[in-house]
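Researcher: For the annotation table, I need structure tokens for Multicomponent K+:H+ antiporter subunit G. Please keep the output clean. Sequence:
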Amino acid sequence: MSGADLPAWAAWLVVALAIAGAGVSLTGALGLVRLRTFYERVHAPTLGATLGMALILTSSMVLLSLLEGRLVLRDALIGVFLTITTPVTLLLLARAAAQRDRHEGNPGAPPEI
């Protein structure tokens, strides 16, 4: 099966998932611009990127599975790596910023637990 032989319902599904993923990622990027403090800004892109990535990879897996005629899960490995590394990066950035703010004596620093 080539891209020209793809059924219309499958093409619409792939396009809808890809556009939804791009929209969620865009929403996360807009949150980065709109929110005021670093601690607010760090969450929006992380959540948007994770959900957007999941939708786009689902779109890719559906398309490749239909084109190859078998279940294709190799893109899920990308999703696993991004799902693991994105929250870890968020945590490390937030902890480093909190430590810096506490060291500098900023009044908006989160309390130490």
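Researcher: And a one-line annotation?
Model: The CA atoms of residues 65 and 72 lie 5 Å apart.
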